[in-house]
Amino acid sequence: MIINGIEAKQYDLSYDKIVKNTLASSDEMTIRFINGLFGDNISLDAPVVWLDKESIDDRYSAIVADFYPKVDGRMYAIEIEQDDSGDMAIRVFKYSVGGAILHNLQSSKSELNITFPQPCVIFLSGSKKKQIDIRWNINFFDGQRVKLQIPAIQLGNLSIKEIAERDLLPIGQFYLRTFEPLTQSKARDFQEAAKSLFAEVKNAVDCGIISHDVGFQMQNTIQMTINNVLIKSKQEVAVEMTTNIKETLPWIDFADLHKKLEERGRSKEREKINEELREIEMQHAAALAEKDASLVKKEAEIAELRAKLENIE
User: Fold this and answer.
1) Backbone dihedral angles phi then psi of residue 56, each to the nearest 5 degrees
2) Do residues 216 and 254 touch, judged by C-beta distance below 8 A?
3) How far is 273 from 280, CA to CA, in rounded Å?
4) Which residues of the chain have pLDDT under 70?
5) Which residues, other chains included, contact 301 with Cβ-Cβ below 8 Å and sequence gap of 6+?
6) Domain chopping of the chain, boundaries
7) In terms of DSSP bridges, do strands 152-154 and 118-123 run parallel, antiparallel, or are they unpaired?
8) Is 117 helix (H, G, I), strand (E, B) or coil?
9) Interatomic CA distance for residues 192 and 17, integer angstroms
């Protein structure tokens, strides 16, 4: 499909799976992401475990979050949503209960011990500046009460700079969805946001925060998101819009960069082997020289002994 000179193809994107696969590729990236979500300061070398959510008992199969990471012994329940459906308070409660039953429950005939995970909901689209408030007000029969404010991240309320500074690029790769529907008035901001997003991904790669492989995957996801936004916005974008994204965006060929790095690595390996070879050759030459000197000495001794024999005769 060609939209204003841009070839756009519709892609099926499983946002929660993409985010989880991105995070699961690096424990350090997961810890940075958790720290950025909750304002924590977990050490970057802390242990990370991805807890199972698929093999849960059939009774709880409908009440699991998108993923349950356990970082430094603390369990989290992360839910990725497109928009606020209006029932997130009860849904997040169910997700937390499901994860707690599956992973954080100990019981005997007379006692139950259960620990809820730290929940968080991430909204990838929806109206910007609209703050979503999720709370639990739990009242027990004996008058005890628990009030909890559940963290809810709305991607459209963050700047790309803030996303990068908080190490939230695993969700930031979907930032361009916040421009849906893409009207003519949003076109310039959309283009600038795309440029900035690519620049921050490249900077994260250059700084070693994310690997080249992950950067390449993020680049592809951003490109597919751009195409999806354009296709969904076909009726909204005016024909007069002439921005050619493919010509103006600073596409980073991470695949080619990765190939060059591999070539550089092979070159360094060859250089290392050559250095070892030169050192061994020098040692060998020295050994030969020492051997030659020893032979000369032996030959002199033989000559001397033969001369003595001749004198005796």
Assistant:
1) -60, 150
2) yes
3) 10
4) 3-6, 53-63, 126-129, 235-255, 257-258, 260-261, 291, 305-306, 308-309, 312-313
5) none
6) 2-252, 266-313
7) parallel
8) coil
9) 27
